[in-house]
């Protein structure tokens, strides 16, 4: 049945050359099961891409050895009125073949894979097929519809966006806008988690529900940093529990007050999956999501680790678009800047995959220039740290300077080269 449908599709193109526009967008060579129909399809598409007429004469010139079959194609078409049905039959047959092949590979590998790995591969298979189904049903948005959507958005009551609490940064980005992805990158030990927790606390004070997913620290360690920020007590003393009874009482009092007015949910798991992220979002319904950090997330089984992380990035971007939720992804920065005279980070310094840059609406780099202070800071000492907005899909890039007090896990905004 599939070969007959393939011949019917090609016959419709011979009878109506304009139909090649739809066929070229809907089908690919791998969807054809027979070598002859695949070659004819490729010749039709090549002729169309070359802006030439697609008919029996031009096709015979391209494929003289297939003259007999080309002249017979029209006879495989009962009626051109069903031409889109023939295309759908070819696509559906190809999808069934892909599903059978993938399922067979998963079953064959099952004895050497863990149950979780097999389940994750099955989920990926379903996700791919769901994406194809959505693509087939998506006819796009006309300009008139886009105008209606824009006017509806423009005249709707203005909700309060999720603001970072740092004035210059908020002027540059507009805050964490719905459906956007922000990548916050730094070297290991460069302050990513401290800065992210500063943002989370600022947002929580503004009555935003925050979901913070951590794959590096248990909630006790995260709360050590929170307590250090709130109480301005050296984090090492809190870690080692070198606190007076008065300090312990003050911490308990402030945290209990903060607990009643703050809505932060920690999700602490060593290898968080995309599906688990979706579950947490559905359960908690946050206003903003933090991923700390994306490089530790569970990835699909792929030979290419870069593609696997790229898939995770793509999925998180889709979640942001589907839910309207702003997502902040922490990411490692590679060591390429070490060999450069100019230490200012570049987008290429994002570690492991280019998909992080492509999927992000904003890319922020935390970095330090020049010699760093020796030893641990104490008292009111601080170190200069730069925050570079290297990508801004909704505006200009810029640079911001902060004082970082790692002993209190605190960032204080100093000045900005961004004037809006």
Keywords:
420 residues; alpha/beta; 9 strands; 16 helices
Could you please describe the fold and organization of this structure?
This protein is of the alpha/beta class. 48% of the residues lie in helices and 14% in strands. The protein is built from 16 helices and nine strands. It has a nine-stranded mixed beta sheet, with helices on both faces. α1 packs parallel to α3, α1 packs antiparallel against α6 and α6 runs antiparallel to α7. The longest helix has 27 residues. The termini are far apart. The model has no long low-confidence stretch (mean pLDDT 83).
Topology at a glance:
Elements: H1 2-15, H2 20-26, H3 35-49, H4 56-62, H5 67-72, H6 83-109, H7 115-137, H8 143-155, H9 167-173, E1 181-186, H10 192-205, E2 210-214, H11 219-231, H12 235-239, H13 245-261, E3 264-268, H14 274-284, E4 288-292, H15 305-323, E5 327-332, H16 355-359, E6 362-367, E7 383-392, E8 398-405, E9 410-416
Parallel strand pairs: 1-5, 1-6, 2-3, 2-4, 4-5
Antiparallel strand pairs: 6-7, 7-8, 8-9
Helix pairs in contact: 1-3, 1-6, 6-7, 10-11
